[in-house]
Amino acid sequence: MPLLDPPLTPPPKIKLSRLRDIGWSKWDPIGLLADGQKWDDEDCQPFADEYDSYLLQAAGQLRRGVAEEEVVGYLVDIEANYMGLGPARGAAARAKEVVAAIQADEELWTFPK
Fold this sequence. Notes:
Oligomer: single chain
Distance between the termini: 30 Å
Number of strands: 2
Largest sheet: 2 strands, antiparallel
Order of helices and strands: EHHHHE
Number of domains: 1
């Protein structure tokens, strides 16, 4: 009788609200939030998910062990080329802050029980 592989543990799930807290507070390249606004304010709901795909990609890369410098480069590239904003002063510093915050947030991931 062949041995069965043990069941795979489901991957952790990300807490999107925490990721948005990080992203919107440290990386709003388009400048959608006015001073004092937060992504979860009622009038911001139409665009609250604007950066989700980029932040999820960055968090996933970090979770898989991609080097922090590569993830910073990814965010800078998204801002400059994909969003079409070109090279921006402080882009790398903002991206580094996002990466550091994602790495430091111990409550960002929910692990299955």
